[in-house]
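If your schedule permits, I should be very grateful for your opinion on a structural question. Thank you for your consideration; the sequence and its tokens are set out here:

===
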Amino acid sequence: MTALSSLDFPANDFPATVSTLASGLTVVHQHVPATPVVTVDVWVNAGAIAEPEPWSGMAHFLEHMIFKGTDRLLPGQFDQVIETRGGMTNAATSHDYAHFFINVAAAHLTDALPHFADLLLNAAIPDDEFDRERLVVLEELRQAYDDPDWVGFQSLMEIVYPGHPYGRSVLGTEATLMGRSPQEMRQFHRAHYQADGMTVVVVGDVDEENTLRLVEQSFAEFAPRGAIAPNGTTRLSQRTAPSRDVIQLPRIEQARLLMAWIGPGVSQLRDAYGLDLLSIALAGGRMSRLVWELREQRQLVHGIDSSFSLQRDASLFTISALLDAEYVAVVEGLIGDRLLDLAHTPIDPYELNRYKRQLCNDYAFSTETTNQIAGLYGYYSILSNPAVSVTYPAQIQSFQPEELQQLAARYLSPDRCTAVILQPIA
């Protein structure tokens, strides 16, 4: 089977327009006249994957510091501008991106967008605010280490992605956070918050002409580009032998079984979408294979879930179970057997159609509001191209049992599994 790249997907029905301004800034716009609000979602190629290893946590820390003002905006002033107009703002950082969004009434977009752009392009990163906010980020890190599920997942990532930024926590470590300076953060900001690495998505009750004019005016002053050391990314490869680690933790009553496989990156979107279907088939609801057998029938687990996370370089397929420690080995073995079943026997077409409907319904429910649509376009703009996003339902519907059988054999072999088991201290 030939893997399809993102460029092989037809997107003739894409309801938005994609423009590139003279500065190199990408603008995605969709007019939604049925709602009197507008979402502006700005996506930046400045996730944790962009960090040199000694700067681990910088991208997430910068997300916090973006809101600490500019030479024209005092700390907290931007929030006041948005909230007094009935809007809201938020942000998130992952390995592949950072993104920031505002929701405002369409009538207030002209007032709000210049402030939003100023915040993103001209972050002052004041020394005193840097020191104060670092304490906030360190507390967030400490709270993460108090969460056994986070500890288990991060341990899993370190094994799955050795030597690659995906294996490092987006939050960084106490050592890397304490070792950084405001000047280094300004350097990181100037290196990555540039027009050619940024997409502005505007969805709502504003027409294309006014959108492009307002975005071009607001995002006109990019700082001179900075430079930082490369991130030291290593090449990823599929594991050829299973790996298993056991961690004992206090204050947990049930064990956790976490299993992971490296999946395809965005250059093989067809394979990635197929793994989405296999994830639903395994543990996407009460009637899925692992949930029905291990929880409903045999009652070996308290809960079991599967997920597929698309990432630029290499995606992640996971199965996680909450269970009593005495059943870990049995459940791990049964999961391996069911994966082999998928690789050896095609899924029944009737069963497959149920999974297809579930995924397509999930897609429909997740693209109802302006902020959901803007987030979808921005996410695909960073990883692939925004027009690909609307092809997802058709791609899901086109899968046949034999193709999914091949994907299960290629990616989900028990021999390529990384497992981390969390157990209560006896």
User: Anything to note?
Assistant: The longest helix spans residues 127-145. Residues 360 and 394 are 9 Å apart (CA to CA).
